[in-house]
Design goal:
Blueprint: E1 2-7, E2 10-15, E3 18-22, H1 50-54, E4 59-61, H2 72-77, E5 84-87, H3 88-97, E6 103-106, E7 109-112, E8 115-120, H4 129-133, E9 138-142, E10 149-151, H5 159-168, E11 172-176, H6 192-201, E12 206-210, H7 222-231, E13 239-240, E14 247-249
Parallel strand pairs: 3-4, 4-5, 5-6, 10-11, 11-12, 12-13
Antiparallel strand pairs: 1-2, 1-14, 2-3, 7-8, 8-9, 9-10
């Protein structure tokens, strides 16, 4: 299994011989609005050309349709016959309105090319912001001979995440650890401390922290997360913090 972080939550995942693209945010720097009033987003460029990113991709998995997870650039350049796995019927309708013809909304799970994809829940923040931000999903990848991969998605640490870890016993967990914060609210994805909570809840898993240093509302940097993890006694082998463009192999 390989995970290449491209930017934010956009990754190329090679799993059981198949190549997935996740949460495609393919815009150039500053292409869409600021979230925190600091700068237009995204705040950094992609590490490779979009054409290179799309090479070999067989399915796209979209956790939700916020613009930092599926943007106008992705809607324009993804092949319209690309198989897409997403959440809830509402997302299916929007993707179909964008011309995509092979969209599957996950209520629980599906089997594709011998790979089980299971949708998990989460909370995109706490309190009043939840209603404003709507539903999000995580996904568990499972296949014979492969480690179980749990991609948490845009969630804080919550009961749904704890239950997914307990149920699926993942070997690899991908967390969105940038501490993204909208003005006046608590973080809407995991911050450093919640990432450590995830590590403590899954003692046999390796955590891959992404969703950092690409959007103006993210408050946790890679260096900050590493320092906090080091202070807590978390070894670098248990918490991987890839750079944009870096590929991790398992």
């Amino acid at each position: 299994m390989k995970i290449q972080l491209l930017r934010n939550a956009t990754m190329k995942i090679t799993y059981a011989g198949r190549t997935f693209l996740t949460d495609p945010m393919l815009s150039t720097v500053g292409a869409f609005r600021s979230f925190a009033g600091i700068a237009a987003n995204p705040t950094v460029d992609l590490p490779v050309a979009v054409e290179k990113i799309l090479e070999g991709v067989e399915m796209t998995v979209i956790s939700h349709l916020h613009p930092d997870h599926f943007d106008e650039a992705a809607a324009q350049v993804l092949p319209k016959d690309m198989p897409i796995f997403c959440q809830q019927p509402e997302d299916t309708v929007i993707l179909q309105e964008n011309g995509f013809t092979h969209v599957t909304a996950a209520h629980t799970s599906c089997l594709w090319e011998g790979i089980s994809l299971t949708r998990t829940g989460g909370k995109h923040g706490s309190g009043k912001i939840l209603e404003r931000l709507g539903n999000i999903s995580g996904f568990v990848f499972q296949a014979a001979g492969e480690p179980t991969l749990y991609w948490v998605g845009d969630s804080i640490w919550c009961e749904e995440v704890a239950e997914a870890i307990k149920t699926h016993k993942p070997d690899i967990i991908i967390t969105h650890s940038g501490g993204a914060t909208l003005p006046g609210f608590d973080p809407i994805v995991m911050d450093a401390e919640q990432t450590l909570t995830t590590l403590r809840a899954a003692l046999n898993a390796t955590v891959v922290a992404v969703h950092m240093e690409a959007l103006d509302h993210c408050t946790v940097s890679r260096i900050m997360l590493r320092k906090i993890a080091d202070s807590a006694g978390i070894t670098p082998s248990r918490l991987l913090i890839p750079e944009n463009g870096e590929t991790l192999s398992f």
